[in-house]
Each structure stands twice: as C-alpha cells, then as structure tokens.
Specification:
Blueprint: E1 2-9, E2 31-36, H1 42-54, E3 72-77, E4 82-86, E5 89-90, E6 97-100, H2 102-108, E7 111-113, H3 123-126, H4 130-162, H5 166-219, E8 223-231, E9 234-241, E10 244-246, H6 254-257, H7 260-276, E11 285-289, H8 297-313, E12 316-321, H9 324-335, E13 341-348, E14 353-357, H10 360-363, H11 367-381, H12 386-394, H13 396-407, H14 418-426, H15 441-452, H16 468-484
Parallel strand pairs: 2-12, 2-13, 6-11, 11-12
Antiparallel strand pairs: 1-3, 3-4, 4-5, 7-9, 8-9, 9-10, 13-14
C-alpha cells in the first residue's frame, strides 16, 4: 500500500506543495477520495502514479513551467520502502499498482492493450495464475540454457578454427553438432510450452470477455463485446451496439459510432474486468482518475457501487474526481464501511497547487445549512487561524438572511439582503408578518453591524483584527437569534 508522500517538487501544477497537519500530512488510507477542479493538478497526480508503476519517461514533460530545478518526488509504502524520483527516473518501481486515467481510455477505446510491458507477457497470460507462472519459468530456464549453449558453440568454433590436429578438429565438429541438436530440442520444448500457454490464454480470453460484458451490462446494456483477437501487443475486438456488430473493417467505425460516455463505459469495463481476473488483487493499489466522464446519474451510481466492491477486494483504492456530487456520494458509500477513509482536496494559491484535508459532507451542504454548520462547529471546536475566523464571520449574515427567506418565501426578493430585511421590520405595520420581529430588531442590527466590519465591501476588512472572545459572543447571539426567528 502507498503510505505517505513526503515531497513533490516541480511536477506540473504541483510546484512545491507542503505536507503538514494544518493542510494534509501526505498519509493515505485504504480508501481515498481526492477532489480537485480541472486544471489544479489532479491528472498530474494520477500520471505520477502511472509513472511509479513502470515508466520513468512520462513525467519528464510534466516539469513545472519556468522551473530551474528538476522534478523531485519522495514517497513511502506501508513497508517503509522509499520510492524517489530524481534525475528523470525512479530509484525503484512500485509494480503492484493499476491506474485508470485518460491514457488508459485512449489506449483501450479501439484496442485493448494486452501487454503491460512490450517485452513481457500478454495480459491473458499474466492473469492465468500459477500455471502460467510455472510455464514461463520453464521457458526462461530453457532460454538461459540455450543462450549458454550458443556461447559454448562460439568457443568451440574458435578452438576448431585454431586447431591443426585433424582428429581434434573432428571431435570439436561433433561437439558443435551436439550443441546444435540440443538447441533445437530446447526450441521445440519452448514451442510446446507456448502452445500450452496459448490453450490457457484462449480459455482466459473467454473469461475476460465474460467479465467485460458483465460490467458493460451495468454501464450500458446496449453494448456487448462479441470477440477478442490477439494481434501483436493488442487485442482487437468486435462490439455489438443495439444488436448490430461493429468494428473498424465494416461500414461503421467505432471511432465515430461510440459516444464519449460509451467510450468511457467500455474502457472502464476493460479495466475493472482486468482487476477481477487478477489472482492477487488483494496486494494491489488501484488509482482511478475521473471514472464518470460524460456519465449520467444512473451510470454514476453504478460506478460508485463498482468502486465500492473493488475497495473490498483491493489493498488500497485512490479515486480522483472533479465532480463534487460524485465525491460526496462515493464518500457516503465508503463511510458505510469501517475501513479507514481519507478525503483530500487539491487547491491552488497561484504559486502552486497544494493538498488539504477535506470535509466532503460539509462542502455539499447548501445555503443556510452550510452556514449553520460552520457557526456550530466554531462554537464546538474553535478556529485555528484568522482565515477560519473570517469564514465564520462570513456565515453570520447569510444564515440570518437564509432563515428569513425561508420564512418569507416569495416575499423577500433575490436581490434583497439583511439590510433590506431590517428596513422591512423597522417600517412594518402592526398587521404585517414582519412586525413580530420588531422586539429582536436591535439584536439583528447589532449582529449585522458587527459582520459588516469584516465584509469584503469594507476596504479595510482584511486588516481589521478579530477578537476571538468577541467573535464567540456574536456567534452565540446569532444562534440564539435564529431560534427566535
């Protein structure tokens, strides 16, 4: 499991984020949600995870604009192993990680990448488990032996060319012939074993196809994969859309037939099916960046359920999203379990993007409910700094205004504020519904005058000092006043 990021420097928008208790200490949990607006560094972070798996080069072009120093990254896994990136490469790779992001989508809309590493085994083979591992070890051993035989043959040839004794030359010739025969036997053995792997792979292709279609049925029941054909490092597929089979060799092209939502559903199904067939998924960290691009609400709900199920099987799940509602719903789903959950936000201060602890539940509260939550939490827990205190003051007037808007729905106009409400109460007749608040008018005016000092309309508002005792007094007065309203 990825345990902690301790430093990132000069990586795209993440020029110099700090990791501390006040913001975010860099520690991941089993389940993690990272919310960020587009353009704040979310995709850069997912690219860092992709690079960490097996690719040094993809980060080189992500260096922060105008940075004079190189990219530097340092993080640790749960076994306290350090992974550091400097001089354009990682000191070691973290192989037990799978990443779904825009790169995965691009690679898998029209063909499925069946080799994670062009020099390695195909995905069908990788997921076969112990049988394929045994076969692959046998092949590797035969290749090593064949390589030794080749080197031995070269030495024999050199000795033969230097030898003048005819009988010794004939003996060396015989050794070369035996060497060639043994190499031929080894090559035949390798072919036999590879045929066995192909048999297993063919069966596994069917399992993979079945899993993909199982996920597609949740995301879009009108899509179905008909077959997979392995070609070099790719698996070309034929897709059925509403009962009509389509591939790039026919009249209709997948590139123009599929909507963006369909493309995302298809690639996400590939990704989740691949994870399902991993026999050791319990050891993996899974990173998912913006899984709901172009999805409607029903598909978003299906995605949340799929990610939740995955989080039960994988060692760790890190989900990145720019959709606050999706983050909120996923947070609710994750919170139904006892597994540790970390919610993080990526923000920007103009100089660098940075990480901070994030209360998704609170952020999704709207209007008066959000303001009331801020006021109540201040009374319970206080504020750590002036920035938080100013946020508390900012919530005082909207909370009072919001409650009056509810009480006088349709009467108080959208462009009328607390000052206007005060005037309505002051000028109200005895028969007016506003008149019953005349007894608390002075309290409303006093609270309004206090909050105006710290409103952005006051040119000196940011320089006005905040007295914590005074602030607490006015917040308590506000909460008491709201009960009377």
């Amino acid at each position: 499991m990825i345990h902690k990021i301790t430093s990132i420097k000069n990586l795209g928008k993440l020029k110099s984020p700090s990791f501390s208790k006040e913001n975010w200490n860099g520690i991941f949990q089993k389940r993690n949600i990272i919310y960020a607006n587009n353009g704040s560094g979310k995709t850069t972070l997912s690219l860092m995870f992709r690079s960490l798996k097996n690719n040094n080069e993809i980060l080189i072009k992500k260096k922060t604009f105008n940075a004079t120093e190189p990219i530097e990254i340092k993080l640790f896994d749960s076994d306290k192993k350090e992974y550091s990136y400097n001089t354009d490469k990682w000191n070691k790779h973290y192989e037990k990680i799978e990443v779904f992001d825009s790169y995965f989508v691009e690679d898998n809309i029209y063909v499925i990448t069946v080799k994670d590493n062009p020099k390695g085994s195909s995905i069908f083979e990788i997921l076969l488990g112990e049988d394929a591992v045994i076969y692959r070890k046998q092949i590797d051993a035969l290749k090593i032996e064949t390589s030794k035989l080749q080197n031995k043959r070269l030495n024999i040839r050199r000795r033969k060319n230097r030898e003048e004794d005819q009988r010794k030359k004939e003996d060396l010739e015989r050794q070369m012939s035996e060497n060639s025969e043994q190499k031929k036997i080894n090559r035949e053995k390798i072919k036999t074993i590879e045929r066995e792997i192909i048999k297993l792979s063919e069966k596994h292709k069917d399992d993979y196809l079945e899993k993909i279609n199982e996920y597609l049925s949740h995301f879009n029941p009108n899509l179905k994969l008909l077959k997979l054909s392995e070609y070099n490092t790719k698996a070309v597929y034929t897709l059925e859309i509403m009962g009509y089979a389509i591939n790039d060799t026919k009249e209709y092209s997948l590139r123009y037939t599929l909507s963006e939502a369909d493309k995302n559903a298809l690639s996400l199904s590939f990704f989740l099916a691949k994870l399902d067939l991993k026999h050791d998924i319990i050891n993996y960290t899974v990173v998912i960046d913006d899984p709901i691009t172009s999805f409607d609400y029903a598909r978003k709900s299906s995605t949340i359920n799929m990610i939740y199920k995955l989080s039960k099987k994988a060692n760790q799940v890190i989900v990145l999203t720019h959709d606050l509602k999706f983050a909120f719903d996923l947070n609710r789903k994750f919170s139904s379990s006892s597994d540790p959950l970390e919610s993080i936000k990526i923000s920007s201060n103009g100089e660098t993007s940075y990480f901070q602890n994030y209360d998704i539940e609170r952020e999704n509260l709207s209007g008066i409910f959000k303001d009331l939550t801020v006021l109540n939490e201040y009374i319970l827990h206080g504020a750590r700094n002036d920035v938080e205190k100013r946020e508390v003051i900012r919530c005082i007037r909207p909370a009072i205004e919001g409650l009056f808007r509810i009480k006088f729905f349709g009467v108080i106009k959208s462009n009328e504020w607390l000052g206007d409400i005060i005037e309505k109460i002051r000028k109200s007749e005895n028969t007016s519904d506003f008149h019953k608040y005349f007894s608390i008018l002075e309290d409303i005016i006093e609270i309004n005058d206090y909050s105006k000092e710290y409103h952005h309309s006051n040119p000196q508002y940011f320089d006005t000092p905040i007295n914590d005792v005074e602030l607490r007094t006015y917040v308590l007065k506000t909460l008491k006043l709201l009960k009377e309203i």
